[in-house]
């Protein structure tokens, strides 16, 4: 369990964080804004608390813009937790300018390990809103999400509505993402919940009491790139409560390409990850085969004239390498450590 510290000013803590190499949590509490400027928090005894959790690595500029944007929420989080791969991932973010407490957890490992580092410091009365470091929430996202969990105690996980997703193209800048969000929020939200099979990878919310009571963790079998970890976790938490899509909790996913794994590693994971989940029982044979075939065919066709924003040829090489390893009987998630992109 990482130790939390609260002494010293923000600059000293940032400097201390940069000097440490082991797993550590640093807590930065910004000066409280005036009552007139402060958005409400529902942290009275017996009330649920809301924590925004963001794992990130090698994308400091993106992360800092996303964290600063959280200040626009009409219901501020009770705390924000960043799980970083290195101290430099903090970028130019100044905790003293934020209207909410900021905690930083740093340790070794890939995407799933960074998520689990956050889970280790959760509290039972919290709702964890797990975001990609390039997801921009509508100003009422946290308030609406918290309201759903308070009204429906049988819900274990919610996932929001993505109004625009830059993953399907070259991605959006922060400024373009904010403009898209403002424009698409002009249409009224469909205030309804609907059952869903899995939470969205860029934005989902989970009841901490369910996670902690059941000892749930993200699968760390993949040492570098998770791949389907959200689906796997969703299906395991689904055994303990409802999973729903909240059409009123909206946002934009920038889909920023910097800091993402090389195409070959992603392609390898596109084959190995579904098979790993099939073996675990969180994905059916039909789902696994369909997903592998879809990704492989997409890589094959797009490798002919690949766009500049994605390495489809590298993904195809990764697909083929995974098939070769399968035929040789040595395919495993850990093999990604031996691949040369």
Q: For the CA atoms, what is the radius of gyration?
A: 20 Å
What is the count of DSSP helices, taking H or I runs of 4+ residues?
Answer: 10
Give the low-confidence spans: 1-11, 13-23
Distance between the termini: 34 Å
Report mean pLDDT, rounded to a whole number: 87
Share in β-strands: 15-25%
Q: How do the SSEs run, as a string of H and E?
A: EHEEHEEHEEHEHEEHHEHHH
> CATH superfamily name of the largest domain?
Spore Coat Polysaccharide Biosynthesis Protein SpsA, Chain A
Shape summary? globular
Largest sheet: 11 strands, mixed
**CATH architecture type of the largest domain:** Alpha-Beta Complex
Classification by helices and strands: alpha/beta
**What number of domains?**
2
- What is the third-level CATH name, the topology of the largest domain? Spore Coat Polysaccharide Biosynthesis Protein SpsA, Chain A
Under CATH at level 1, the class of the largest domain stands as Alpha Beta
The beta-strand count equals 11
Question: Could you estimate the helical fraction of the residues in percent?
Answer: 25-40%
Would you give an account of this structure?
The chain has 341 residues and is an alpha/beta fold. It has two domains: 4-253, Alpha-Beta Complex (Spore Coat Polysaccharide Biosynthesis Protein SpsA, Chain A), CATH 3.90.550.10; 263-338, no CATH class. Helices cover 35% and strands 19% of the residues. It has ten helices and eleven strands. Strands 1, 2, 3, 4, 5, 6, 7, 8, 9, 10 and 11 form an eleven-stranded mixed β-sheet that branches. Helix 1 (10-19) links the parallel strand 1 and strand 2. The longest helix is centred in the last third of the chain and has 18 residues, at 263-280. The protein is globular and about 55 Å long. It comes from Rhodovulum adriaticum. Keywords: Transferase. This is GT2 family glycosyltransferase. InterPro entries: Glycosyltransf_2, Nucleotide-diphossugar_trans.
């Amino acid at each position: 369990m990482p130790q939390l510290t609260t002494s010293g000013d923000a600059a000293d803590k940032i400097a201390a964080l940069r000097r440490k190499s082991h797993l550590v949590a640093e807590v930065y509490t910004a000066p409280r804004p005036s009552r007139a400027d402060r958005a409400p928090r529902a942290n009275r005894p017996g009330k649920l608390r809301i924590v925004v959790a963001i794992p990130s690595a090698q994308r400091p500029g993106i992360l800092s813009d996303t964290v600063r944007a959280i200040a626009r929420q009409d219901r501020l989080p009770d705390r924000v937790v960043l799980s970083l791969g290195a101290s430099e991932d903090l970028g130019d973010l100044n905790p003293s300018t934020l209207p909410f407490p900021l905690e930083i957890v740093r340790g070794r490992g890939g995407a799933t390990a960074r998520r689990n580092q956050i889970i280790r410091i959760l509290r039972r009365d919290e709702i964890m809103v797990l975001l990609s470091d390039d997801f921009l929430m509508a100003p009422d996202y946290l308030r609406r999400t918290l309201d759903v969990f308070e009204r429906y105690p049988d819900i274990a996980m919610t996932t929001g509505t993505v109004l625009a997703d830059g993953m399907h193209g070259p991605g959006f800048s922060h400024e373009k993402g904010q403009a898209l969000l403002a424009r698409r929020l002009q249409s009224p939200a469909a205030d309804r919940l609907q059952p869903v099979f899995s939470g969205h990878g860029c934005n989902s919310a989970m009841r901490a009491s369910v996670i902690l009571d059941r000892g749930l963790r993200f699968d760390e079998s993949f040492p570098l790139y998770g791949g389907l970890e959200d689906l796997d976790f969703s299906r395991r938490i689904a055994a303990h409560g409802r999973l729903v899509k909240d059409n009123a909790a909206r946002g934009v996913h920038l889909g920023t390409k910097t800091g993402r794994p090389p195409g070959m590693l992603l392609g390898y994971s596109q084959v190995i990850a579904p098979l790993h989940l099939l073996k675990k029982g969180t994905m059916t044979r039909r789902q696994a085969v369909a997903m592998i075939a879809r990704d492989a065919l997409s890589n094959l066709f797009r490798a002919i004239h690949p766009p500049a924003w994605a390495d489809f040829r590298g993904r195809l090489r990764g697909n083929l390498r995974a098939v070769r390893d399968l035929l040789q009987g040595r395919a495993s998630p850990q093999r990604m450590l031996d691949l040369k992109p």
